[in-house]
Design goal:
- The protein is an alpha/beta fold.
- Helix content is about 30%, strand content about 25%.
Length: about 250
């Protein structure tokens, strides 16, 4: 298959404290099945390689729920998304590109993932990411308020500023990083992920810091703007209710 040099990785290590539930966030129910199952359904058959699911909190429960159709990597500490991706390096083998999806953003469409991969390959990007733009952060769009802001210079992406580290001016930017789909050239990813530092408000290693690294290297960054509803996720029962009402 055309996509057999791709490895799909799903972030599913989160505890989901704001859900006020003992379940790991990936297993929070949406339309009668765990959130992560919606993602797994969307990627089914994209290639022949087993997807990797990164587990952490109650990892055994996630594994027992999903079964042996997947590979699993363990994020032992919640040190950020870049730390999580570092855990899959040995499992990625000779994959040329790595697709990173989030288990708590279940509305992303299969067609979007495939288009993201196709665009990434077509322009030979080092990083391809999805962004979305909203008119405001009111009503259901308040979900995006704390998302990283897309920084551009003369139209080109030069970085992503996480909300907690953003200036007031940057917080007014309406184009945000969705966080629901990235595609990385694997050789570039592994060569650069060790350069990420945790000198931010959360002391975490952000995968999004790779964007500014790529920009500094003048490496090709491809951005694909997608529908805000498709970008929605859930960190709380209130946000789950929004997905129930808006999701398709």
């Amino acid at each position: 298959m055309e996509n057999n040099k791709i490895k799909i990785v799903i972030l599913a290590a989160g505890k989901g404290t704001r859900m006020k539930s003992d379940l790991p966030k990936a297993l929070a129910p949406l339309h009668g099945k765990p959130m992560i199952n919606h993602i797994l359904q969307s990627i089914e058959g994209i290639n022949d390689s087993k997807p990797i699911i990164i587990i952490g909190y109650q990892g055994d429960l996630v594994k027992n729920t999903l079964g042996d159709s997947y590979e699993y990597a363990i994020q032992t500490e919640q040190l950020g998304t870049a730390n999580a991706i570092s855990a899959v390096r040995d499992l990625c083998g000779d994959a040329e590109d790595i697709v990173v999806l989030s288990s708590d953003q279940p509305l992303i469409k299969r067609e979007t993932i495939l288009e993201c991969i196709a665009r990434h390959k077509a322009v030979q990007a080092k990083i391809t990411l999805t962004t979305t733009e909203v008119p405001d952060f009111e009503e259901w769009r308040k979900y995006f308020l704390t998302h990283g802001r897309i920084l551009r210079q003369e139209g080109k992406i030069i970085g992503i500023k996480e909300y907690n580290d953003a200036t007031e001016e940057e917080k007014n930017i309406k184009e945000v990083n969705t966080g629901c789909c990235y595609v990385f050239n694997s050789a570039w990813l592994w060569a650069n992920i060790g350069s990420i530092r945790n000198d931010n408000s959360k002391n975490e290693y952000y995968l999004t810091d790779l964007i500014s690294l790529a920009a500094l290297q003048n490496a090709k960054i491809e951005a694909m703007k997608i529908d805000p509803i498709e970008s929605l996720g859930a960190n709380s029962k209130e946000e789950l209710a929004v997905l129930e009402n808006l999701g398709v």
